[in-house]
Every structure is written in C-alpha cells, then in structure tokens.
C-alpha cells in the first residue's frame, strides 16, 4: 500500500514538473513568435495557435515517456491526448477565463498591495496574470485527471501472469526494502 501511494505521489510530481516545463516551452515559443514574426495585435492568434500545437505534441511526448511511462502508449493515446487538448483549448479554457474574469475584487486587492509596496505593475497586468495563474492551476488539475483516467488509462484487461505477479507484489506491499 505504501509503495502505491509513493508511486502516485511521484507521478503527480512528474506531471507537475513536465507540465510546468511544457508551459514554459509554450510561452517561450509564443513570445518568440509574437516578438519576431507575428508582431501586430491581429496576428497574435497565429502565434498562439502555433505555440499551442507544438505544446500539445511536446506535452504528449513528455507525459507518455516520463509521467505515464508504465502505461500503454500508442496512436490511440496520441489521438485521445490531441482531442482532449483541442476541447480544453476551444471550450474549457475560454470558459475558465470568463469565470476568473469575475474575480475583479481579487485582482484589485492584489493591485493595491503591489502599489502599496512600490511594485509598479499596471492593473491590466495584475488582472491578466491573476486570471492566467488561476486558470493554469485549475487546468493542471483537470488535465491530470483526464490524462490519468482517460488518455493514459490503465488497461482493464490483464493477463493471468499480470494478475499473478500483482498478487505476489501485494504480499510484499507492507515490507520495506
């Protein structure tokens, strides 16, 4: 039992680290494209689209090879990952952005604190950053659950030898190495 909890904790840690790395990569690509290629305001959606698409494939690679490396990985999982991320980016994120846009009182409070301690952030910066941070936290939790239970789901069918080895492993679950 202790080993299983420890494995789940490690998995959540890997998910967080690789998710954070993927977020940094996504943001970096977006900034490079926005600064060097798609400079006008009405072209930023192209930078967002490109950085998001790259981020989906980077995220799939990182999570399939490291976070859920013990699970089956193939075209079916890539398809599920891609479909979920399209749904997330087209429907869920915009809804969350609108929802967290209602938290103006919180952003005003954070802005007042920044002003009070001499940090010259604009209200727009505090609001957009607060919205992004809240949305990212919620998205990370939702994505973990969807990836764990749907995209990289554990196989429901197990062979006789797999069930046998699990039973052998359960008898050692209470012992430490």
Could you characterize what this model shows?
There is one protein chain. This protein has two domains: 1-71, no CATH class; 89-156, no CATH class. Residues 170-177 have low confidence and may be disordered. The protein is an all-alpha fold. It is built from six helices and no strands. The radius of gyration is 21 Å and the shape is globular. Helices cover 79% and strands 0% of the residues.
List the helices and strands and how they pair.
Layout: H1 2-36, H2 44-67, H3 75-100, H4 104-116, H5 123-151, H6 160-171
Helix pairs in contact: 1-2, 3-5, 4-5
Compose a concise summary of this entry.
By secondary structure, the protein is mostly helical. It is 79% helix and 0% strand.
Quickly give the structural class. Answer: mainly alpha
Unreliable runs: 170-177
Average pLDDT works out at 83
Radius of gyration: 21 Å
List the helices and strands in order. HHHHHH
Distance between the termini: 14 Å
How would you describe this structure in keywords?
79% helix, 177 residues, mainly alpha, 6 helices, 0% strand
């Amino acid at each position: 039992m202790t080993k299983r909890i420890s494995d789940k904790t490690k998995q959540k840690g890997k998910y967080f680290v690789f998710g954070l790395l993927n977020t940094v990569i996504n943001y970096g690509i977006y900034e490079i494209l926005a600064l060097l290629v798609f400079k006008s305001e009405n072209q930023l959606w192209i930078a967002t689209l490109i950085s998001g698409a790259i981020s989906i494939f980077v995220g799939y690679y990182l999570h399939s090879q490291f976070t859920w490396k013990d699970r089956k990985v193939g075209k079916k999982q890539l398809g599920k990952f891609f479909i979920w991320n399209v749904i997330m980016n087209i429907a869920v994120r915009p809804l969350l952005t609108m929802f967290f846009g209602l938290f103006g009182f919180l952003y005003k409070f954070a802005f007042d604190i920044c002003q009070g301690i001499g940090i010259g952030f604009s209200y727009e910066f505090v609001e957009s950053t607060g919205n992004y941070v809240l949305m990212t936290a919620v998205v990370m939790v939702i994505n973990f659950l969807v990836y764990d239970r749907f995209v990289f789901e554990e196989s429901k069918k197990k062979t006789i030898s797999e069930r046998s080895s699990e039973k052998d492993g359960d008898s050692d679950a209470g012992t430490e190495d």
